Amino acid sequence: MPEQTVVSAQLIGQVLLDRGLLSEEQLQQVLVAQRKPQERFGEAALRLGLVAEAEMAQFLAEFFQLPYVALSEDEELDFSAVELVPEAMARRYGLIVIKKEGDLLTVAMADPLDVRAVDAVRVETGCRVAKMVASREAVFKAIDRSYHASARLAKSIDKLLAGEATH
Question: What is the pTM of this model?
């Protein structure tokens, strides 16, 4: 594991310890488990079931000074903006577009450090990307709701237009 990653993991772990989200024993457990598959600290803590997903997402948002979004069922998403990123890409990178303002896309993502995801969205859309943090579970539920809802809406509109054309 690169030295910078070890330092980051220890810093994140220490802050989680200081906030009472992990015990000293749990911190050591994550650090040991993390070295084996070369995964990130947060991923290891989640895999071990030591921290809840939403709690980790809120912590990461605060730690990296990014906005947190819960992506609840009633969260307003701009479907025309959502469709700028193909569903397969959204699923691959664990992200969803929330809105588009000018050439700026606001994207909720489970891994705010995934530079490849941000680059892929920028290349796909030609837009700048503003990151927000959400839990992985919330992102995938939003993907399911958004892409399937927009597909249903498109089919309904097509049926309506086809009905008007026959009258």
Answer: 0.79
